[in-house]
Inverse folding.
């Protein structure tokens, strides 16, 4: 197998690298691509970097030109993310706009919806959250009960969503709700776009163990949403929702070798019993084992890229990547906590915190990765049924 990238992709690399050398944030900061955001100051830093990328034409690069993208092909998109990671200047996560809402609207939106929403997603002027999960509907999403009943030119929404990342900062939500209470399961669901400032919406932040706020519970009480905000057909929203999920489960997978290198660097820097941790063969063996797994995951990610180059639909590799990657990340973070010993408890900004306290934050958020976007047990089910053809 030839792992060399095509010359056009390497040309593209030069272009983005030259731009990043001038424009990438120079100060030390935690990666901007995490779903958790430390505070308002970090949120604003992320938005500033997002706007800068947009000013250079680097947001939504794989989108069609007519919607403000660059028509970048798969390999150019791969190179783009590699270069951003090299500069620790990842595409910032500022909600679910560019990754989820935008591509879904390009596929399903009306021309008016595309004109209204897409430019502001690209510019970062409007941010988005995802209203899928409910207190009694997570893995079993199609049992959701938030209702949207037609009344004149509006849908009137009542119900509640939970775990809604960054809802407290979002301008818009794409909401999956039931428009026909008589139809069970995935039938009778619709996908509508809700302005978060509409009267009747209450957003209650859920404070996490480290004091950060990433999630919210969102309550809807007689919230009136114009009918023109329906995406796709009424009662056929599940098809739109699964398009969004396909984008959501398209997990990277090539970042893990970097993470292992970061762990190795930390092990060289800290001491155990007065000697560098790296001098312990047990430590080195564990890190080498992580490195092998990280490489295996990286090559599995290349299988996904190959499928996309051949214009085949996403295969089971996205479930394998999600499962293997998030579990490896969790074990790496737990091992980092062991290595750091008492220093593991020091949070961001505290004196003596190793690497600015980023390891504690990573450890706290690592478990979330195994749940978000479809829990790992669900990924086990998918792999068992669709890859290994095991009985249900
Ligand atoms: C970091 C993070 C960000 C999130 N952001 C959002 C967001 O922005 N918007 C949004 O809508 N949601 C969001 N979620 C919610 C997420 O989608 C759900 O937590 C997830 O789908 C699981 O649903 P649940 O929490 O209701 O757990 P449940 O579905 O109640 O599952 C509980 C346990 O049972 C297991 N289980 C359930 N069904 C099966 C089965 N059939 N077979 C085997 N095991 C099973 C699960 O794996 C889990 O261990 C986020 C979650 C996290 C962690």
């Amino acid at each position: 197998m030839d792992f060399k990238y095509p010359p056009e992709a390497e040309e593209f690399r030069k272009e983005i690298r030259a731009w990043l050398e001038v424009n990438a944030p120079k100060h030390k900061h935690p990666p901007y691509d995490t779903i958790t955001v430390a505070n308002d100051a970090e949120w604003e830093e992320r938005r500033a970097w997002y706007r800068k990328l947009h000013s250079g034409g680097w947001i939504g690069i794989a989108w069609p030109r007519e919607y403000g993208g660059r028509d970048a092909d798969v390999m150019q998109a791969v190179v783009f993310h590699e270069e951003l990671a090299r500069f620790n200047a990842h595409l910032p996560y500022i909600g679910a706009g560019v990754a989820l809402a935008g591509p879904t609207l390009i596929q399903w939106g009306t021309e008016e919806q595309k004109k209204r929403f897409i430019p502001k997603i690209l510019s970062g002027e409007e941010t988005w959250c995802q209203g899928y999960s409910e207190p009694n509907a997570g893995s079993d999403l199609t049992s959701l009960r938030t209702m949207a009943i037609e009344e004149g030119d509006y849908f009137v929404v009542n119900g509640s969503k939970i775990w809604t990342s960054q809802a407290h900062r979002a301008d818009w939500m794409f909401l999956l709700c039931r428009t026909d209470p008589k139809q069970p399961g995935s039938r009778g669901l619709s996908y509508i776009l809700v302005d978060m400032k509409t009267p009747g919406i209450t957003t209650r932040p859920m404070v996490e163990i480290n004091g950060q706020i990433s999630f919210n519970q969102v309550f809807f009480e007689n919230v009136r949403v114009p009918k023109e905000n329906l995406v796709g057909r009424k009662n056929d929203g599940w098809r739109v929702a699964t398009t969004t999920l396909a984008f959501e489960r398209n997990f990277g997978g090539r970042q893990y070798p970097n993470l292992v290198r970061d762990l190795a660097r930390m092990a060289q820097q800290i001491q155990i019993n007065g000697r560098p941790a790296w001098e312990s063969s047990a430590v080195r063996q564990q890190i080498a084992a992580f490195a092998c797994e990280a490489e295996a995951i990286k090559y599995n990610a290349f299988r996904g890229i190959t499928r996309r180059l051949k214009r085949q639909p996403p295969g089971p590799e996205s479930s394998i990547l999600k499962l293997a990657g998030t579990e490896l990340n969790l074990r790496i973070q737990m091992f980092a906590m062991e290595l750091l010993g008492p220093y593991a408890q020091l949070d961001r900004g505290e004196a003596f915190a190793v690497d600015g306290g980023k390891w504690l934050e990573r450890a706290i958020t690592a478990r979330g990765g195994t749940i978000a976007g479809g829990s790992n047990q669900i990924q086990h089910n998918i792999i068992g049924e669709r890859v290994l053809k095991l009985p249900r």
Summary: The chain has a mean pLDDT of 92. The pocket of flavin-adenine dinucleotide is lined by residues 35, 129-133, 138-139, 163-165, 368, 371-372, 374-375, 377-378, 381 (CB under 6 Å). The longest strand covers residues 213-226.
